[in-house]
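Hi X.,

You mentioned you wanted examples for the new student's onboarding notes, showing what a folding record looks like when two proteins sit in one file. Here is a clean example. The first protein comes first, with its sequence line followed by its structure tokens.
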Amino acid sequence: MKKWIIGISALLILTIACIYIFIPEKMVVSKLMTAKVTIDGAARFLSDEKNWEKWWRDEHSKVHEKGKPYSFNTATYQLTSFRDKGIGIQIRDQGLTINSLISLVTLTKDSTLIFWQCEIPGSNNPIYRISKYYQAVTIKKNMSAIIKNFCGFIADPENIYAFQFRRESTNDTLLLSARFKTDHYPSTSEIYNYLSLIEQNIKKQKATVVGFPLLHVNKIGDGNFEVQLALPTSKWLKDDDIFFSRRMVKGYFIIGDVTGGPDKVSLAEDQLGNYVSDYGKTRIAIPFQRLVTNRMIENDSSKWHTQVFMPVME
């Protein structure tokens, strides 16, 4: 009987010793994954919680319901802080509140390492320590699934920028251009009135229009807008009054197609700027719009087809 009690006691002591040896008082939980995305694109997208709606999936692969906490299994997740190339996320799980950090590290120009880490407090109580160990295992599984969803989503650049952008080259293009200022964003009629004047001057100089109109709108310091318009011409023309000739030399462009009105085009231009910056392209001239749809004929702005261009150096 005494041997049996001694054996049980020894086993219990050994078990407790193993708990203290193999389960640390503080448990560090981390997950590493690589995403096919630029670090700036990933950081900007991840740090805006409104974007989480687009990629978040719960444990049943269901999309997030707007207005509800971001949850996965028994845990909820909340964006709490912004850091350089990283964010803080608070995890709440079964009475435990943990502050975690996602850090981003550049691997290549378009490949980013995503490292998510948190620390789970332990206890001198062996039962509590075992409980926290299994909770840590669950949290790590959750982190793995969440980060996998995120990496899979941002691997498609269109999910990051909301538009598809591509690289194209162009041949020499001769342009006749004009500028004007306004205290408001130019209306469709104002734009096409100036385009009509440019076209008249092209005909006056015995040339023809050979492409779609080009538009650049710049908001200047005093709250006004400077508008530049141009039409491609069949030959080099002379400067004439408000009209001036320009040559768009052969080079490379990042281009995106947009269907929609001015607000959507403006968003596409902003995202084009982000795309060019994220991929380390050097801008060599102002961005511009190509007005593929004649907006005076098509009144429904949701049907307007516009191309946004950014000249870049390779």
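Then the second protein repeats the pattern, sequence line and then tokens:
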Amino acid sequence: MVETEASIFNAASSVFRRFGAELTLQTWQKVVGGRLNGFDWYDQLEQDLGRPVDRDTLRAEVQQQHHAVANTLPAQPGVIEYIDEAGARGLKLGVASSSSRWWVTGHLERLDLMQHFDAVMTSDDVTHTKPEPDLYHAALAALDVAPTNAFAIEDSPNGVTAAQAAGLFCVAVPNEVTSGMPLEHADLRLESLADLPLAELIARFEARG
């Protein structure tokens, strides 16, 4: 709903550049939309430099830069229209995010969207985040909706994998960071939700084979 991936990547990569190192997008993409799999960009920085760094100071710097940008970002194109149309149709809405609860609810509240969601599931609610399906299982249970009667909108390969593992039809809408990542396994790919009205997406979902 909000494209915060670029701001954290840009903040972390700026730290690398200051040390004369490089955090590539390919390296960063290992962690997008799901678990870290043991990857820590501070480990990577120390490995590149061949010496330790003050992690606490750098972590605080990255978070400050990231939050300063992310907290000004609007909803992605088409999101508000989808939410409004879903409400008019009486559809249930849920969030299944690998981010922490405070981060997710903070953005929903900042954008005055919290009241539109019937369930919000985050990394605080499950043992395993994406690409495991736990978040989607939890969201479906909270919504009391069968996976065959729901679809997911995701922006990363990990997210698409998680949604499909839970039995959902999944629409991929990549962001600036994930646009070059493999999303062929999605049931449908859109460059923006603004490209396809919700009514047409629902019609495609209902007509799926």
